[in-house]
Amino acid sequence: MSDETPVTIEISGGVAHLTLNRPDKRNALDRATIGALSAVLELCREDPTVRMLQLSGAGNVFCAGADLTEMQAQAHASEQENLAHAEKLAHLLGALDAFPKPTLARINGDGYGGALGLIAACDIAIVAEPAKFAFTEVRLGIIPAVASPFVLAKISESAALRYFLTAETLSAATLKEIGLAHEVVEADSLDAACNRISSAILKGAPEALREAKALIRDVAHATAPLRAQTSLQMAARLASLRVKGEAREGFRAFFEKRKASWRAD
Hints:
Number of strands: 10
Helix content: 40-55%
Order of helices and strands: EEHEEHHEEHEEHHEHEHHHH
CATH architecture: Alpha-Beta Complex
CATH superfamily: 2-enoyl-CoA Hydratase, Chain A, domain 1
Largest sheet: 6 strands, mixed
CATH topology: 2-enoyl-CoA Hydratase, Chain A, domain 1
Distance between the termini: 42 Å
Radius of gyration: 18 Å
Oligomer: single chain
Number of domains: 1
């Protein structure tokens, strides 16, 4: 894949294959990638030839979360600038969560931070066995605020309490156990599994599939339309934390490859 565009799209047989295309940056979510993915979602929403989406990452990582270069720059940004940045991700996750056509996450490798928001915002998630995941934010002095409305729609409060607070590494099996993945397969079986799911979806009538998604949102989670709004509210909470001393120390420690001041180990 070319490194020139941060998100590629290939439409085949009714499936729009969207790929985060920054393998040299572990497909991190910088402003350009967030903007490109948001634009592609809008195109696919309006394209009648697209019946469903499949989201994956180039290379051997699904998505490393926030872009490190932008994270460094944000350490010196104002709360308002941090809010503007967080709101872009909130709008993207809201658009993916509310996308009217079926969405499938082809999770080809590791996913951290905001990547778990992308996974949670997709309808179905298939994970390659070696992949690892983590909500790493508290170790940087921040919180998984923007992704939380979408993640908490899929996992229990109990699971969130453990993994938001400990930032432990989750295996693919654990991701399935807590409700963020539907299947875990060997890496060389990932495409076959995704093709099987896509084939099953495409046997459904397009309008019926859209209405089935709407039915689930309306009946199972009466608050589903509020998730995007809540994510934007949480963006403000994240921006407020991002300019405080703990976050500044957390990011400095991360980039200086040392332990943060609050760590006793």
